[in-house]
Amino acid sequence: MSVQEVLPLNGVATGPSGQFRADHLLVAEMVKPGSKVLDVGCGEGDLLQLLETRGIDGRGIELSREGVNRCVAKGLAVVQGDADTDLVNYPDDAFDYVILSQTLQATRQPKVVLENLLRIGRRAIVSFPNFGFWRMRLQLLIGGHMPRTENLPATWYDTANIHFCTIKDFVQLCDEINVKMERSVALDLYGRPVPLNLPWWVWNMFGEQAVFLLSRGGGK
Amino acid sequence: MGSVKSIPSPAISADERSHEVDHPSSQVMHFGTEQPLRLDCGVDLSPFQIAYQTYGELNADRSNAVLICHALTGDQHVANVHPVTGKPGWWETLVGAGRPIDPKHYFIICSNVIGGCMGSTGPASINPATGKVWGLDFPVITIPDMVRAQAMLIDRLGIDTLFAVVGGSMGGMQVLQWTAAYPARVFSALAIACATRHSAQNIAFHELGRQAVMADPDWHGGGYADRDIHPHRGLAVARMAAHITYLSDAALHRKFGRRMQDRELPTFSFDADFQVESYLRYQGSSFVERFDANSYLYLTRAMDYFDIAADHGGVLAKAFAGIKTRFCVVSFTSDWLFPTSESRALVHALNASSARVSFAEIETDRGHDAFLLDVPEFFDISRAFLQSAGKARGLTLEDR
Does ipTM come in above 0.85? Predict the structure, then answer.
């Protein structure tokens, strides 16, 4: 199992201006200032704007036309595109970091996407909702229905999220495709990091979402 | 059967037309025999002139120049009243006080393309070797030739790097050619409703237009100027056909439907019963007042030949390798002349070159013409892109 590390993230739940999402702040902390970043599934560009305040050269891809146009109208370098089909157009090592924030579960081929992230970028930062979170488990176990939460309010029949996974599942995939986990953080329901000295099963139970900093693994 | 009206003759005289061709109501830069324009066809064009307009002032750093490239039937009068038609500038929605490209912030340049008929040297100009109008003796020009001429103008104006090059349709082709030919001279590029090459369908439409001109007996093998006539019927038909491609089925239906023109019932004739017919005839007849038929042949041909990838071993990304220019690419959902797929191919090539690019597709039913119309989302995007680039360029874009 890779290194677990909690970052210096005092007051992470509310940003300096109270406007940034907890996972965005966490991601931004992981990116070295001055680097070149691609945000895949950048939504309305909130994370890119946060990165820009830190002197980071950010680019974005977004599936929805409305999202793209809002980003471009903010002066961000964002193009309309699909993580599943358009990442192949980018050359190797084009970016220092490629970010996939809360998007992995909406891709058709998460494994291929993950491989592409680490081909285009020297590092990848992936965040996703943890389907092993205790409230998810409880809804299925006791409620007997597909879990729905504040962050994932869509019903099973109209959700864009087609490939949910747990933290444990994701770690297994990383091992399978020889991806090195440099940092990993689980955030609880309130956006606070789950303490690092706890075992994985606790993360998988109490992490509402997880953020991983990944790099290419060496030969095994 | 009622009387059949064909397209009316233009009110304008041949004298008036030739005046704008040789002595345009704008600034003119002359290039003597010592500075020929080397054309792709192998001919050195010399002497020649470029008619252009400027708005705003060049700053001390010479870093705020914006070049606007006009489309097929546009000209240098981008933001002032047109000297022939008396109509507002063709892009006053985008260029002007309070607009995304404001002369308060930028030194705005717009030149008539080589091959045009509003003061830059073209087939309607006088050939100095013969003292007669060039006509079909004028060498065939290309989009790269137009851009080469613009670069010579920019040199003369003492500008090294353009802050932005902006254009739609054929203007967008020139934008892309600028970035491919002079990447270091273009800080940012706004390419709208365009493509890196002309499609087979578009070449086909252009051929239709050219054949309409050439089928007019007044065309006289391109030598109509010597006879003091103009093939206005053929040119009007070309314009009518082209105009349909600038719109969309939905826009035509919304604007005209099957409504009748000043009548309740069909006249059972070939008169313009339908509003859409009347509209097209008006578009055709007003166009011939300001445009030269041979110029139309040359400029459509230039677009047909355009293919950036072909100039770079068939690989589009090679045209933009290592480019530092900031790109903004815009397409419109209902544009079937330069569909979004063309812009997407460009964006893929730019991504492969790791270029900094924004790409927005704007939803509208107004077709290709949308880039010239009042589309607020397009203005917001243009403004934000230029502001963001201006910040990176160190321009002061706040109110002075």
Answer: no
